[in-house]
Amino acid sequence: MAGMPPTLSQFIRARQQDYPDAVGEFSQVMSAIALGGKLISREINLAGLVGATGYTGRTNIQGEEVAKLDEWSNDLLVDLLGETGCVCVMGSEEVEGPIVPPESASNGRYAVLFDPVDGSSNIDIAAPVGTIFSIQRRATESGVGNLDDLLQPGRSQAAAGYILYGSSTMFVYTTGQGVHAFTLDPTMGEFHLTTEELRFPEKSNVYSTNEGNSGTWLEPDLKWVNWIKQNDPDTGRPYSARYIGALVADFHRILLKGGIFAYPGNTGRPDGKLRLLYECSPMAFIAEQAGGAATNGTKRILDIEPTGLHQRTPYYIGTAREVELIGRFHEGRGPG
Ligand code: AHM
Ligand code: MG
């Protein structure tokens, strides 16, 4: 299309030619996720009109209330990914165990993990939410996949991304060759490239965290948050606070404007709230590819060896400078 930036599928097809062993399965997986994103976007835009707000009355494996859109979006992604025949197993925030596609279609090369609608309590107030996904190459040889395909460290992801349903719907992903951002043109039903090789900006004095929990935080996090709120214009302090309570939206802001997002562990929940495999790892892959970093305080998120599908981790993600700073507090060294 002359004059128009490439669509997501054109962009992925063009990039696929750089990988001689690519057989098109990856493009199909990405297309399924992109189609899911468009359908979820439409449903969210119309939520109040089509009765998609509110809760199902059930709780999920995490003991959290299941929003109607959580369930609808989960089933949609399971169906769309299963139909590709390119996925051997899936893992979802909404489902306790591995999800296996129909037998006839389960010999695919990829395992996909996702959080269908992250931050879903925002739907009822028309505030942003997102879908997060992580694509791993299968670890098992063939046939139906299992937990071994899903429990792989973040560093081995083939791709990761998110779809932000905000004032625009954006598709942001990486395959380890930079981070690329696309914006949905709802009149065309197409994602178009809006930023190639997205990088964190240098400026970084913004923090994004649920500080209402700080009474239960551990000492390094308390020292950190007190330090960043002190008045010292020479070091850019105090920082500004921004928090909408949906990881995709809070992270997207940090990615574009700089700063750090934190969800620390606390006295009651030493591993914090966020889930390693379908929330933290995919965002960490994007952050690193954009020149940033992500840690649990002492360890790189992408190096954590997973032991459970729904395991949680303390989480700090953002510009390299800010993530290094929180690491210093966790090592007991202070700001330096
Ligand atoms: P969810 O997957 O149940 O929606 O929960 C995850 C969300 C994240 O998007 C967000 O960063 C976090 O929970 C907010 O938690 P809190 O309300 O404790 O600040
Ligand atoms: Mg979530």
Q: If you had to describe this structure to a student in words, what would you say it looks like?
A:
Helices cover 29% and strands 23% of the residues. By secondary structure, the chain is α+β, with helices and mostly antiparallel strands. It folds into 2 domains: 8-195, Fructose-1,6-Bisphosphatase, Chain A, domain 1, CATH 3.30.540.10; 206-330, D-Maltodextrin-Binding Protein, domain 2, CATH 3.40.190. The strands form 3 sheets. A 7-stranded mixed sheet has the order 3-4-5-6-7-8-9, sandwiched between helices. Strands 11-10-12-14-13 form a 5-stranded mixed sheet, sandwiched between helices. It has a two-stranded antiparallel sheet with strand order 1-2. Helix 1 (8-16) runs antiparallel to helix 2 (25-45), helix 2 packs antiparallel against helix 3 and helix 5 crosses helix 8 (320-330). The longest helix is centred in the N-terminal third of the chain and has 21 residues, at 25-45. The protein is globular and about 60 Å long. The termini are far apart. The model has no long low-confidence stretch (mean pLDDT 93). Residues 64, 93, 115, 118-120, 210, 245-247, 250, 273 line the site of 2,5-anhydro-1,6-di-O-phosphono-D-mannitol (AHM).
